[in-house]
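Protein modeling request. Please complete all fields; requests missing the sequence field cannot be processed.
Requester role: graduate student
Desired output: 3D structure, C-alpha cell encoding
Chains: 1
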Amino acid sequence: MKKIIRTTIKSFFYALYYGIIALLLYFVVAGRTLTDWYDVTFGTRFREIVYTFNLGLTGADTSFMSEALQECRPDLIKATIIVLLLITADLILFRRVGLRKVRVDESKGRHDVQEETLRHETKETKLKYRWVRSKWGVALQCVYHATILLICIFLAKPVYLYADQVLEVSDFLRSKLMYTNIYDEKYVEPTSVQIENTRKQKRNVIIIYMESMETTYASKDLGGYQERNLMPNLYNLQRQNIAFGDRKGMAGTHNPYGTTWTTASLLASSSGIPFAFNIGMNKNIGNGSDKGKFAKGVTTLGDILEKKGYNQEFICGSDSAFGRKKKLFQEHGNYKIFDYYSAIDAGYIDKDYKVWWGMEDYRTYEAAKDEIRKLADKGKPFNCTLLTVDTHHVGGYRCSKCPRGNGSKTANVVACADQQVQNFVDWCKMQDFYKNTTIVIVGDHPRMDKKLVEDVDKVNREAIDVFINSVSPYRKIDRKRTAVTMDLFPTILSSMGYSIEGERLGLGTNLFSKKKTLSEEMGYEAFNLEMGKNSRFYHKSFE
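Delivered output (543 residues):
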C-alpha cells in the first residue's frame, strides 16, 4: 500500500513538473505571436481581459478563441514536440532510478525474494547501477530537472516583458496593491443630495450608446486621424447642439481605468464610478438569478428615475446577458429588457436568424421606434436606453445598408453607424414626444481593435458625446471641458432639466455647471492613476 502511495505521489509531481514545463514552453514559443494577435485584434489591456472573463462570456461571439488557436498552431506544435522530447530523454536517462537489477534464487520461494536479492546481488550489477540508485543519482536527476526549469524561465522572461509592455500586466497587478482615498474624499452618494426637476413637466430621455464610437474617426482637420471624415452627421449634431471635450474639432470624453469596455462604461456613465469590483464578485450569480444583486451598493441613473416615476427600457440587438448588462438594468431601475431574443419573440426576426452578435443595428433602431411609441403612449415620462453593436471589434459588421465608398470595411461600418443614428434622430424629431425629450448620444468606449487607429496614442482617443434638445437649467455653458465617462451621470440629468445640489454625483461632475471636474482639478493623468488603484471604501460600499 505504501509503495502504491509513493508511486502515486511521484507520478503526480512528475506530471505537475512537466505540466509546468509545457506551459512555460508554450508561452516561450507562442507568447509573442499570441500577444501580437491579441493586440491587433482587441487592443485592450490585461485589466479588461480579467474583468471580461470574470463577468462571463454568455452571449458573446467566442469565435476569437478558435482564431487565436489557429494563429499560433504552428508554435504550439513546435512546443509540444519539445516537451515530448524532454519527457523521452528523461525516461531514457532516469527510468531505473531507485531500482536494483539482481539475481534471485527462484528455489527459495517468493517470501524470501528480498533476502535473496540482497544476498545474491552481484558485484558487477552493483557497480553498474549504484550511481543510479545512490544519492548522487537522485541528485543528478534533480539537477537535470532544475536546469530544464530554469532554462524555460530564462527564455520566458523576455516574452513576458514584451507581453507586459503591450498588455500592461504589471500595472494591473501593482494597482491592486496600491490604495486610493479618492472615494473617501470625493464620492457623492446620489441619495444624499437634492435632485429636483426644474420643468413643469418631467422630460423623457433617449440615451444611445454607440459601440466603439470615438473622435478619431473624424478627419484630421476636425481633430480626428482619418483622411476623410467618417462621422459627418455626428459632427454636425455636435455643432448644432451641445457636446463636451477638451480638443478642437470632434468633442469627446476620456475613458479612464474601469470604463474601457461596454459594461464598465454603462456603469460609470450611469453611476459615477468605474468598474473596479473584486474578481469573483457575484461570480456564481447568473443573469436570471434572484440571488444577490449586481453592484448592490450603487445608485444609478435608473434608480433615480425609477423613484421619479419613469418607465424605463433597455434595447440592444445582442444578447443582453453578455457582461451582465441585463442584471445591471433590471436591478437598477427595473428596466424592461428588449434584446436579440426579445426581437425573435416579437417577430422582428426569425428564430434561426443571427448575424454578428444577434441582429443588425438598423433592425434594432426599427424595433426601438416601436418600443418608444409604446413608452410614449403610456402617459408617463420614459427613459429609453439603446446600445448598438455593428461597430464592435473585430472590424465591425457591414450590413446590407452600409456604403462601400469609404475604403476599408471598418471605415464603411463607421460611416454606416453615423448615418443610421442621424436617421433615427430625424425620426425622433418628427414624433409628438420629441418636444419633451432629450436625446443623448455617447460612444461607450474607444474601439478595441487597431482598425483605423493603429498609430494613434490612446490618450488621444476619446468617446464621442452630444446632447440634443437639452433643457439644462444653465444657459452659459463652457463646452471645452476635460471630462470623463463618470461625468456623464449628472450631466444627463442636468440635460433633462434637473438641478443637482453641489453639481456632483458619484465621482462625476455636471458639465453644464461651472464646477470643475475631478480630472480638471487633478489633471486627467493623475485622476486616471487613482481610478486604477484599489479602494477599501469602494469594495465596502458598492459590492
